[in-house]
């Protein structure tokens, strides 16, 4: 149910060893080979165009303004390693259709896990109840729309056996252990997911999407004397099996060991307000929390966001450009169509320092009289679409990283995070720093770890006084939570100076 | 699906897996129903209905282990699903510690009725439920000119689950829930503080149905004018509904997997005094109407009442069959049920009155705890306390420290237990906490 928290997590720690990640194993539960046309998707879901039209008619039977059907078949497989062996596997199949009816900005929603004509019509009638008149509805045609291709892959996960995947997970373990004798435990995982989506709405739009996803990573636990520290490292993309390589294993293993090593030397900063330098990459969490969620138009439509009356106003220095993009090639946050069947864009949220666009779903786009931005997303067919981010990042600016760091007398440099959160109305946002460095007299000095940083969105945005030329997307397993729904996202940032944030630490 | 149909399908799935090469199998089949309605501006904003089914199967094949789930429950499809899963499992490494539990430890039936299911679930008038949400909204609408937005929700649901294992366990459980939630945003300067309040119950008749909107409004209005105060070491009271954010890491640290993987700050501390002697917590699965009450756990093991912390001494690790074998310890059940605190003598106001200078925490904003070390840092909001009185609302501050120290510095445990959760938590006063602010 409604909650006032929007959380953002990187799946981390030991959670990966459990059931949280559901990646694969199962080739199929339907024997239809999918190809890139709508006919094969209809066959896959065992429905016909006529049947879809009939279900939409039932959904609209009580006078709704709009209805849509979202068919989804998601197969997830995961391999896990603990105590030196790939000794566990998990898989999950989710199959069903979500049926939504809109009346103005009101939503009726029901779903069915079976796709018989009776089950679909029954679910449609439940969703139809949001409206309560007896309007006639004339059947709509079929307007087939070929989706964009932001994540072409060559080797589908469904064609890859467990046998092919196991060696990569095993090599990760062996590599991490080989790198440092302080390593006492290693967890490793490889999770793949394949989703088929078929979409049809009362405007006649008929489209589909094939969505692959891979996440691969490790948790490294090291001990030095009595002290134990852990580091979690992973990458995630919409890519196929061809992406896995020994080089990748090497890169991740080194990163994990280096990160854990840093923690043994780490101290805590002084508690209080200070300049914060956000390192390039994962620091994009700043944008996600401080700005992204508060730009989601459902909050603004209801007047509950601190940015509700700031459209068209200057909110940052003129070299600040912030983007939410669903079109980056093979990116974890990309989608060929959004979960309302809309085309996806690269959307400027802040252009030259001015608030340029909110993040829209169909309801809010209609409310504001703008084109949908392709941000209507949902966790699965069981959920209502909401305005959600995709890949959120800032473009490069005029400064360099060295300029920025040397500018700070006492502060922190942060570049490794585990999670964040924001209060939409107050605008207070936070992010948790796994590790970073103190800055003393313009130089990075001692490592720091395990501190929370808190700030206020509009203030922090205005306080971005320097932006470097080293923009980078972080391809970790970023997952965004809102109203109980999780969706995959990414974030990115060049090195940035925020003049003042409140940093957790010792008094 | 009826209960008998679920048992039949589970037994069929077990036979099919055994016939295709598994030596041990555990199957669990569940269905759930839920509905919710959210209202705004005297209209229904969202109406949702859901019926969901799931089968999950754990396979032990030639000392190798895997676990799978699906919502495609037709036998023809399940057969292929199980066969593929077994074939895939054969590519994994052997794991000598993987077996089903010792049948001696299974729940054997004839337990008491813990009242976790409202058998009248289908009999309540849907219109009355929608009216409850409208009622909660009405408590707020127009009551204060600073209100920007009000939404209220009613939700309910029920789950039924049957579990069967190939070495003799059969059991079923069911539970229901009903809830009301209200959320209010108000305008205060540039900020738009929001607050929510909710109540829930296992039985419809027990759901508190009035005052929810009003409580959310009061909490939102009190937040107007939030400001950070100066950094410093101060006393901290954490409200009963919020303390789980700080108590959760202690429970996670008792998890058998965290202990065995050395990813816990409580490794090798069983039987040792780690926390304040004011901390005594019992895990009690047999509370009538308890939200975490159950007769058997996720593996079928019979539950028991256990001491978790006794006067600051660690008394229990949560150990399932697998980690029990790895750690050479007896299984204690892999997860917590109801957690009951030994309470003190004061309610929240009583605790506040004892504080010379400190902060009452009424909400958290982000933050985390390092499970290996217990180092934590969280964003907070609440109220500044001076000379036993609540002063200005505060926000945009952090608390930072280590769980072992924090829970060693308990000033006092309250008596105001929150009954809306399986964790029956009171408010807690801590001394000497590092706050970072202005």
UniProtKB/TrEMBL annotation, chain A:
GO terms for cellular component: cytosol. SUPFAM superfamilies: Putative modulator of DNA gyrase, PmbA/TldD. The lineage of its organism: Bacteria, Pseudomonadati, Bacteroidota, Bacteroidia, Marinilabiliales. Residues 156-261 form the Metalloprotease TldD/E central domain. Residues 67-131 form the Metalloprotease TldD/E N-terminal domain. One of its GO terms (molecular function) is metallopeptidase activity. Belongs to the peptidase U62 family. This is TldD/PmbA family protein. It comes from the Bacteria. It comes from Mariniphaga sediminis. It holds the Pfam family PmbA_TldD_1st. Residues 272-505 form the Metalloprotease TldD/E C-terminal domain. One of its GO terms (biological process) is proteolysis. Keywords: Hydrolase, Metalloprotease, Protease.
From TrEMBL, chain B:
Pfam families: PmbA_TldD_1st (PF01523), PmbA_TldD_2nd (PF19290), PmbA_TldD_3rd (PF19289). GO terms for molecular function: metallopeptidase activity. One of its GO terms (cellular component) is cytosol. This is TldD/PmbA family protein. Belongs to the peptidase U62 family. Transmembrane segments: none annotated. Residues 26-87 form the Metalloprotease TldD/E N-terminal domain. Residues 231-437 form the Metalloprotease TldD/E C-terminal domain. Residues 122-223 form the Metalloprotease TldD/E central domain. PANTHER family: METALLOPROTEASE PMBA. One of its GO terms (biological process) is proteolysis. It comes from Mariniphaga sediminis. InterPro entries: Metalloprtase-TldD/E_C, Metalloprtase-TldD/E_cen_dom, Metalloprtase-TldD/E_N, PmbA, TldD/PmbA_N, TldD/PmbA_sf.
């Amino acid at each position: 149910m409604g909650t006032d928290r929007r959380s953002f997590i990187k799946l981390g720690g030991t959670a990966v060893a459990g059931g949280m990640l559901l990646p694969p194993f199962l080739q199929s539960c339907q024997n239809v080979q999918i190809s890139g046309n709508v006919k094969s998707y209809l066959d896959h879901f065992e429905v016909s165009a006529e049947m879809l039209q009939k279900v939409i008619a039932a959904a609209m039977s009580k006078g709704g303004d709009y209805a849509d059907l979202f068919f989804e078949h998601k197969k997830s497989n995961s391999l896990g390693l603990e105590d030196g062996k790939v000794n566990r596997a998990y898989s999950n199949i989710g199959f069903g259709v979500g049926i939504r009816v809109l009346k103005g900005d009101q939503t009726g929603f029901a779903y069915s896990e079976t796709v018989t004509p009776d089950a679909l019509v029954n679910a449609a009638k439940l969703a139809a109840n949001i409206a309560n008149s007896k309007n006639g509805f004339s059947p709509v045609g079929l307007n087939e729309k070929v989706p964009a291709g932001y994540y072409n892959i060559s080797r589908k996960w469904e064609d890859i056996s467990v046998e092919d995947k196991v060696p990569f997970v095993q090599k990760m373990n062996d590599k991490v252990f080989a790198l440092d004798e302080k390593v006492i435990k290693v967890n490793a995982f490889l999770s793949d997911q394949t989703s088929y989506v078929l979409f049809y709405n009362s405007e006649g739009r008929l489209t589909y999407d094939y969505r692959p996803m891979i996440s691969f990573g490790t948790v490294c636990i090291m001990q030095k004397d009595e002290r134990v520290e852990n580091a979690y490292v992973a990458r995630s993309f919409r890519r196929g099996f061809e992406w896995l390589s020994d080089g990748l294993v090497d890169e991740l293993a080194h990163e994990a060991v280096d990160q854990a090593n840093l923690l043994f030397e780490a101290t805590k900063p002084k508690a209080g307000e200070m300049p914060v330098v956000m390192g390039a990459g994962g620091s994009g969490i700043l944008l996600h929390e401080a700005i992204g969620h508060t730009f989601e138009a459902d909050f603004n439509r209801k007047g509950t966001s601190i940015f509700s009356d700031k459209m068209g106003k200057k909110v940052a220095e003129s070299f600040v450009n912030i983007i939410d993009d669903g079109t980056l090639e093979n990116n974890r946050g990309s989608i060929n169509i959004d979960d309302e069947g809309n085309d996806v864009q690269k959307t400027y949220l802040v252009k030259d320092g001015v608030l340029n666009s909110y993040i829209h779903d169909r309801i809010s786009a209609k409310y504001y009289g703008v084109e949908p931005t392709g941000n209507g997303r949902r966790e699965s067919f069981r959920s209502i679409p909401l305005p959600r981010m995709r890949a959120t990042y800032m473009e490069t600016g005029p400064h360099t990283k060295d300029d920025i760091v040397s500018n700070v007398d006492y502060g922190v440099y942060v570049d490794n995070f585990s999670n964040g959160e924001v209060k939409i109305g107050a605008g207070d946002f936070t992010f948790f720093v796994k590790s970073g460095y103190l800055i003393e007299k313009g130089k990075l000095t001692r490592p720091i770890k395990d501190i929370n940083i808190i700030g206020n969105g509009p203030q922090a945005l205005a306080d971005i006084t320097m932006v470097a030329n080293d923009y980078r997307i972080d391809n970790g397993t970023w997952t965004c939570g809102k109203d109980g729904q999780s969706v995959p996202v990414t974030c990115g940032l060049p090195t940035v100076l925020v003049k003042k944030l409140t940093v957790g630490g010792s008094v | 699906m009826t209960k008998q149909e679920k048992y039949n399908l589970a037994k069929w799935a077990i036979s099919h897996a055994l016939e295709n090469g598994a030596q041990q199998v555990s199957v669990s089949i569940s269905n759930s129903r839920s509905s919710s309605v959210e209202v705004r501006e005297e209209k229904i904003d969202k109406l949702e209905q859901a019926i969901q089914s799931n089968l999950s199967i754990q396979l032990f094949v030639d000392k190798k282990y895997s676990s799978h789930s699906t919502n495609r429950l037709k036998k023809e499809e399940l057969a292929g699903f199980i066969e593929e899963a077994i074939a895939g499992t054969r590519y994994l490494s052997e794991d000598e510690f993987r077996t089903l539990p010792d049948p001696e430890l299974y729940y054997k039936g004839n337990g008491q009725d813990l009242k976790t299911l409202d058998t009248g679930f289908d009999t309540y008038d849907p219109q009355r439920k929608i009216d409850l949400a409208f009622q909660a909204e009405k408590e707020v609408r127009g009551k204060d000119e600073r209100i920007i937005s009000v939404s209220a929700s009613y939700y309910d649901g029920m789950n039924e689950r049957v579990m069967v294992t190939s070495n003799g366990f059969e059991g079923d459980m069911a539970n229901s829930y009903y809830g009301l939630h209200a959320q209010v945003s108000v305008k205060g300067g540039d900020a738009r503080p929001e607050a929510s309040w909710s109540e829930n119950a296992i039985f419809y008749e027990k759901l508190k149905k009035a005052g929810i909107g009003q409580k959310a409004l009061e909490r939102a209005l009190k937040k107007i004018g939030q400001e950070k105060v100066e950094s410093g070491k101060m006393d901290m009271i954490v409200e009963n509904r919020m303390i789980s954010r700080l108590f959760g890491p202690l429970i996670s640290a008792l998890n058998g997997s965290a202990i065995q993987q050395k990813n816990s700050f409580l490794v090798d501390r069983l039987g040792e005094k780690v926390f304040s002697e004011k901390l005594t917590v019992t895990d009690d699965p047999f509370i009538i109407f308890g939200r975490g009450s159950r007769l058997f756990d996720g593996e079928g093991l019979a539950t028991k009442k256990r001491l978790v912390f006794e006067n600051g001494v660690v008394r229990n690790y949560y150990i399932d069959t697998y980690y029990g074998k790895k750690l050479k310890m007896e299984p204690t059940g892999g997860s917590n049920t109801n957690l009951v605190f030994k309470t003190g003598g004061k309610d929240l106001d009583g605790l506040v009155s004892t504080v010379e200078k400190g902060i009452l925490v009424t909400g958290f904003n982000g933050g985390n705890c390092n499970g290996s070390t217990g180092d934590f840092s969280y964003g907070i909001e609440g109220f500044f306390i001076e000379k036993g009185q609540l002063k200005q609302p505060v926000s945009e501050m952090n608390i930072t420290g280590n769980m072992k120290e924090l829970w060693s510095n308990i000033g006092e445990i309250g008596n105001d237990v929150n009954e809306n959760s399986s964790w029956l938590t009171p408010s807690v006063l801590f001394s000497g906490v590092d706050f970072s602010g202005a």
